[in-house]
Each structure stands twice: as C-alpha cells, then as structure tokens.
Amino acid sequence: MTEKQIKKRSKNSFKRGEDGLLASHEYIFNDDGSIDWRAMIGQEHLFPNKNWFQLRSQDVPNSIDGLRDDQLLIKLSGIKELARLRGFSDVSYKVVKCELDHVAVVCRITFLPNYETDGEPVVFEDMANASLNNTYDFGQNFLETIAANRAFVRCIRNFLNVHIVGSDEIGPPASAQKASAKPSLSPQSMLESLFDGDFDKFLSTLREFWVDKVYKHDSASSWKQFSDIPVKEARVLVKLVKEK
Predict the structure, then answer these.
(1) Predicted TM-score (pTM) of this structure
(2) pLDDT tens-digit readout, 20-63
(3) Percent of the chain clearing pLDDT 70 (strictly above)
(4) Which of these, 61, 49, 50, 63, lies nearest to 175 by C-alpha position?
(5) What HEC string does the chain produce?
C-alpha cells in the first residue's frame, strides 16, 4: 500500500454518511432501530469487576464470558472508542469544587447530529467527584484528573445508555474497604507526612512563613502536635508547604 493510499484510507475512515454514522464502520442496532452502543464495545476493553466478586467472597473469573454488565468494568480506552464512533464536536470541563480532599467536575459534550437526534447536535453533561474516601494509593495525589476522567466516562456511557461501570469510576478495592481499620488520610496527617512526623521541623517552617509574611495564625502558638491544627488551617498549610 502506497503512502497516498494510506492517507486516502485514513481520511475516509472519518467520513460520516447522511445518517451521521461512520461510513467505514459497521454498527449494531436494537429492534427499535436505535444503535446498541453496549454491543459496540470490543471485548478487549472489558474485564471482570474484581470488587463485585471479592465482596461476595467469590473467585474472580479469568475471562468475561457469561458475565453480566454489573459484573464487568470498561476501560477508559473503550469509552474513548465509543465517543469516537458516536462522534462529538466539543468537550469541556467545569470544576465546581476543588479542595485538597475533594474535587467535583462537570463534563459537557456536544455530540454530532445523527439519525437518532433528527439531524440535530445534542449537548449532554454529567458530574463526578474524587475524594480521599473514594480513591486510593497514588491516585489520591491526582484528584482533579480522576474527577475529570470519571465525569467524561459517565457523560459518554449515560448518554449512550451503557450500564457497565467505567474502571475510572470505582473506588478502593474490596481488600482496602475491608481493612477499614486504616483511617482515611486527613489534612493533618497529610501535613504530618510532609514533615516525616517531625513537629519541630514543621514549627521551623511555620516560623519562616511568619517572618516572610506568607502565613500567620493567632492560635499557632498553642499547637503542640499535628492533630491540634484545625482542619481548615492544615489544608492551607499543606498547599503552602507543597508550593515551597
């Protein structure tokens, strides 16, 4: 295949017919004539939902054969593939809440017109959040990204009526949920971890902030340990320390 043929084929793969569907792709339809988007998900994008089985003390299957939608998870790659097949012209995000321990994001997508929408574009949006309670491991350092991915996933699958939960939407694994003896990470504990538990080292930094007029709090002199620091102040200090 020559370079010219490759370019021609690549261009044609994005061409849509009068019905708004990709001319280069075969679609699967429901009995009522609508597109069965669930059936359009390739098996390479699906895998067993470990949490579903572990919470019921059942072995996790090695394949997805015979599993129901509620026993499956879909990868972000599968959601992106559905978005490409459906077609969209715009994706935007709005952060409605952004704190150190909780971020909420709205994803707004303008879908291209097709026969299902009477030839009109449709705008759809959905919201998702990420917090220290529904994330785990290194993911707790990227709450904004996780919230945005979750909002995108929900926007796509809810608009297309796909009931398989996205892998980006799930929280801690069942094993972590059962080990509830481990407390959630608090702003005070986050601050403590930044100083390796050394409160004297923290006080030294606090004095630097005071001298440099970066931060000052009237009750700071009464703080004897990290747990004495009010939650609101701990959040502010975590941000300042990270910036420093």
Answers:
(1) 0.70
(2) 999 999 999 999 999 999 999 999 999 999 999 998 999 999 99
(3) 90
(4) 50
(5) CCHHHHHHHHHHCCCECCCCCECCCCCCECCCCCECCHHHCCHHHEEECHHHHHCCCCCCCCCCCCCCHHHEEECHHHHHHHHHHHCEEEEEEEEEEEECCEEEEEEEEEECCCHHHCCCCEEEEEEEEEECCCCCHHHHHCHHHHHHHHHHHHHHHHHCCCCCEECCCCCCCHHHHHCCCCCCCCHHHHHHHHCCCCHHHHHHHHHHHHHCCCCCCCCHHHCCCHHHCCHHHHHHHHHHHHHC
